[in-house]
Amino acid sequence: MSSDGRRWLELRVRCPSGGEQSDLLADGLIAAGARGVEERGGWYVSYFDEPHDLEAFLAAVVSDIESETGLSPLRVDYDWQAHESWEESWKRGLGPRRVTERIVVHPSWAPPRAVRSTDLVIRLDPGMAFGTAEHGTTRGCLRLLDGLVRQGDRLLDVGAGSGILSIAAARLGARSVVAIEGDGYACEALRENIDANEVEGVVTVAEAWATAQTLAARGPVDGIIANIEAGLLAPLHEGFPTALAPGGWVLLSGILTGEWSESRERAESYGLVLEALDEDGDWCSGLFRRSP
Question: Which of 80, 126, 247, 279 has minimal CB crowding within 10 Å?
């Protein structure tokens, strides 16, 4: 147990049958709410908030992963980690990454070796928040944002997590970005990353869970970034068109390939028109425009 009482559930999952499809376990764990996943000798290791009912939580996660990936039966093991121990172990998997021609992301302990004068360099320490350049949804959003954000744009980042997309938008020229995040631990990392990248004058944190109604109340804005899992995205669609200014855009991500068709149809039913699609592994990121 850490000095402040925080501890995290370390969940280890593997599929005895192995095979290439075992990689889907990482996607299944992220979809279940894991704060990070790494592969260790055939086991996919992830971290979750301490659940109130451990047995019920484990059963639900395994059921969801088996249903999502088709992999069964799964072997499951778990342990507990103090907050400080988690942060140190998670550092092992992160390093500098060039995501686009000009966007470079790196943690504070691993600065990039080769940087061009035209590069936009983002220093990011995720802490307990989701959002690093190691995940397909984040990379997809960064690729779509590069070339999309205009000087002076007013944006919302729903489920901002580590703040990587809010910071990128600010560095790309946005005038204001409201980073909406309801997880207190994530907000700690979010605020630290905003300060580290010196965008506190552009990015503001709203510690709250977004709803269709609260999004609509924050409009009109030029664009909305929503990189959260498909199940959480669904009830927000009603608020997107109202929150967007005419011609505004919404970037939807955190969507598995098997969920994309349904997610696209839902967005289109609210008057959003697909403009671009980025696919990264099993993940889809879609750019939609509000129809006139």
Answer: 247
Distances (CA, A) of 135 to 57, 139, 149, 211, 227: 24, 6, 21, 25, 11
Where do the domains of the chain lie, and which CATH numbers do they carry? 7-90 (3.30.70.270), 128-290 (3.40.50.150)
CA pair distance 164, 135, nearest whole angstrom: 12
Give the global pTM. 0.75
pLDDT, tens digit, for every residue of 113-158? Answer: 889 999 999 999 877 666 677 788 899 999 999 999 999 999 999 9
